[in-house]
Amino acid sequence: MGETYKLQIPRDDLHDQLGQGLPAGTITLIEGAHGNGKSAIVQRMIYGFLSNQYSVTCISTELTVKDFINQMYSLDYPIASWLLNGKLKFVPVYPLVGTGNSRKDFLGMLISSEELYKSDITIIDTFSSLVSNSLHGEDNSIKVLSFFKRLTGMGKSIVITVDPQEIEAKSLAPFESDSHVYLSIVVSQVGGMISRSIMVKRFGGTQFRVSPVVGFRIEPNVGMVIEITSVV
Question: How far apart are CA 220 and CA 228, in angstroms?
């Protein structure tokens, strides 16, 4: 088996639940509605990758640099040293591309910006928000996937988050079918309790055990907490 980009930190066992980390040279799709916890999972992954000496680029539609730093520290994921030494590159999208026509051109910018893909892992959160104006039907989706596959062929890993309500089903389908790792975030309510779970729909490229369902919650000053059981 090839290299695995480890996620291990002492505080939780997400690493063990998800096959000892993400296989190198893979595309990971994290799918879920707004507010389901996609960004929280991405933030935990970023901290895990960096803690295991990998380099990460995060392209974000959600946060400014200041907001990102504040968010990570609120979860006790200190990342300042990695920002300073270049192991972590954080790219807030909207200050760069603005709105209107520039957003329509983002797909081309995404593919042509080689600097974004020099890290071991590139994370795009939220991918669907960035490309909703430029992905129509399968053709452009296949074009983007072909580009991602060229990167994964060089050992890079790509993680994208998607809100299915922001993108046409026929545009999303190629990503769902071709991603090596496909995780769906589900939120349910039982009584007065909110339950969040990672549903593992696909996890290719690993020889290690992968849990089909990973329950979790996010706590201030603690970060991600993996639940022993989950109700879906």
Answer: 19
Domain ranges of the chain: 4-226
- Tokens 């695995």 correspond to 4
Helix (H) or strand (E) holding 147: helix 138-152
Cα separation, 139 vs 145, in Å, equals: 10
Q: What is the dihedral of CA 61, 62, 64, 68, to 10 degrees?
A: -130
Question: What's the chain's Rg over C-alpha atoms?
Answer: 17
Domain 4-226 superfamily per CATH? P-loop containing nucleotide triphosphate hydrolases (3.40.50.300)
The partner residues of 123 in beta bridges, in order of sequence, read 58, 159
pLDDT (tens, 9 = 90+) of the chain, 232 residues, equals 579 999 999 999 999 999 999 999 999 999 999 999 999 999 999 999 999 999 999 999 889 999 999 999 999 999 999 999 999 999 998 655 555 445 556 777 888 888 889 999 999 999 998 888 777 767 789 989 999 999 999 999 999 999 999 999 999 999 999 999 999 999 988 778 888 999 999 999 999 999 999 999 999 999 999 997 544 4
**How many CB atoms lie under 10 A from the CB of residue 196?**
22
Cis peptide before 152 (omega within 30 of 0): no
